[in-house]
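Field log, afternoon session.

UNIT: design team B
ACTIVITY: writing a sequence onto a fixed backbone
BACKBONE:
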């Protein structure tokens, strides 16, 4: 049984592969990943990370939270602008 399997395997090596002749070159578009981000904007110091706010009153905490929301919107806007540049066809 082993010899029969070996004979079949060796017989497969004896066959010649078919050769395909290309008559005309064909253009194939393959997407190639490229880096499109040259730099990432620095992460700002968030207002709510200030250690002095631990003992602050509610009004100050509320104002700080609103300031941080605006800070985060600007930072996310910068990041989205960079990502849109990567997605646009060039």
């Amino acid at each position: 049984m082993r010899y029969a399997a070996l004979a079949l395997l060796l017989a497969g090596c004896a066959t010649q592969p078919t050769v395909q002749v290309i008559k005309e070159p064909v253009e194939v578009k393959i997407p190639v990943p490229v880096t499109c981000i040259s730099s990432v904007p620095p992460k700002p110091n968030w207002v709510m990370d200030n250690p002095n706010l631990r003992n602050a009153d509610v009004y100050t905490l509320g104002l700080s939270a609103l300031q941080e929301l605006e800070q985060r919107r600007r930072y996310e806007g910068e990041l989205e602008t960079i990502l849109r540049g990567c997605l646009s066809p060039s």
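LOG NOTE: The helical segments are 2-14, 58-87.
NEXT ACTIVITY: expression trials, pending approval
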